[in-house]
Amino acid sequence: MTIFVFKSAQENMLYKRILLKLSGEALMGNKQYGIDAMRLSAYAEEIKEVVELGVEVAIVIVGGNIFRGLAGASNGMDRVQADHMGMLATVINGLALQSALELKGVQTRLQSAIKINEVAEPFIRRRAMRHLEKGRVVIFGGGTGNPYFTTDSAAVLRAIEVEADVILKGTRVDGIYTSDPEKDKTATKFDTISFNDVLTKGLKVMDTTAFTLSQENNLPIVVFDMNKKGNLMKIVSGENIGTVVDL
């Protein structure tokens, strides 16, 4: 007698819980600033597909398409105030993505590290994990809630706190290269690279604080092109997409 063993879609996924980091610039699409509705909708569709397979998704979005704290500080603005403005920009992007996901029927919760109770839940680790367990997408806004820390740090911190399996860093390029591929046509791509090699080669993946925190907690990072349709699904399915940074 032949026995057939059927696996659920979730069992075929490489990662059960992911932290997806999206750049604010990517949300601009072809615009000079702000949010491109078509790009936002495309991202929401990609996220919906992996959620429907049972992958638990947490998200951190940067606010660079609206305001960058470092840019404000470099123009003479008080650094703390500038960083707070940047944090608010991430909440705006979070609200936009939440709306796009909910229009597609994906239950979503926005949590903020700074209190804005009228528009977002406060970040509470146990509540965030419960949302993820129930299949809701959780968007983390407001950075870490502290000035002088980047959204890279926020992404790694939240990933560790909610016990994510991996950080997926969605960018405009398809991985990590020996140099900037947009400026150097001879740059070559790494399929995999260790944390130590990233540091010794001086490659820019995340800021040093965030990268070290990820390394110390054995949390792998995958850098990939989020703008190519299907890439997110391929990564969670175990395909070799982008560059994997691991021990």
Summarize the structure.
This protein has 9 helices and 11 strands. The protein has 247 residues and is an alpha/beta fold.
Would you write up a description of this structure?
The strands form two sheets. This protein has a nine-stranded mixed β-sheet with strand order 4-3-5-2-1-6-10-11-9, sandwiched between helices. Strands 7-8 form a two-stranded antiparallel sheet. Helix 2 (37-52) packs across helix 4 (79-103) and helix 6 (151-161) packs parallel to helix 8. The chain has one domain (13-246): Acetylglutamate kinase-like (Carbamate kinase, 3-Layer(aba) Sandwich). Residues 4-8 have low confidence and may be disordered. It has 247 residues and is an alpha/beta fold. It has helices at residues 24-27, 37-52, 69-74, 79-103, 125-133, 151-161, 195-200, 208-216, 231-236; strands at 17-22, 56-61, 108-112, 121-122, 137-141, 166-171, 176-177, 189-190, 192-194, 221-225, 243-246.
Key traits:
247 residues; 9-stranded mixed β-sheet; alpha/beta; 9 helices; two-stranded antiparallel ribbon; Carbamate kinase
User: What fraction of residues sit in β-strands?
Assistant: 15-25%
Helix content: 25-40%
Radius of gyration of CA atoms, rounded to a whole number: 18 Å
Determine the CATH topology.
Carbamate kinase
CATH architecture: 3-Layer(aba) Sandwich
Distance between the termini: 45 Å
Total strands: 11
Secondary-structure element order, N to C: EHHEHHEEHEHEEEEHHEHE
Count of folded domains: 1
Major β-sheet profile? 9 strands, mixed
Mean pLDDT: 91
Can you tell me the CATH class?
A: Alpha Beta
Structural class: alpha/beta
At the fourth level of CATH, the homologous superfamily is: Acetylglutamate kinase-like
Which ranges are low-confidence, i.e. pLDDT below 50, for 5 or more consecutive residues?
Answer: 4-8
Number of separate helices: 9
Oligomer: single chain
Describe the global form.
globular
Strand order of the largest sheet: 4-3-5-2-1-6-10-11-9
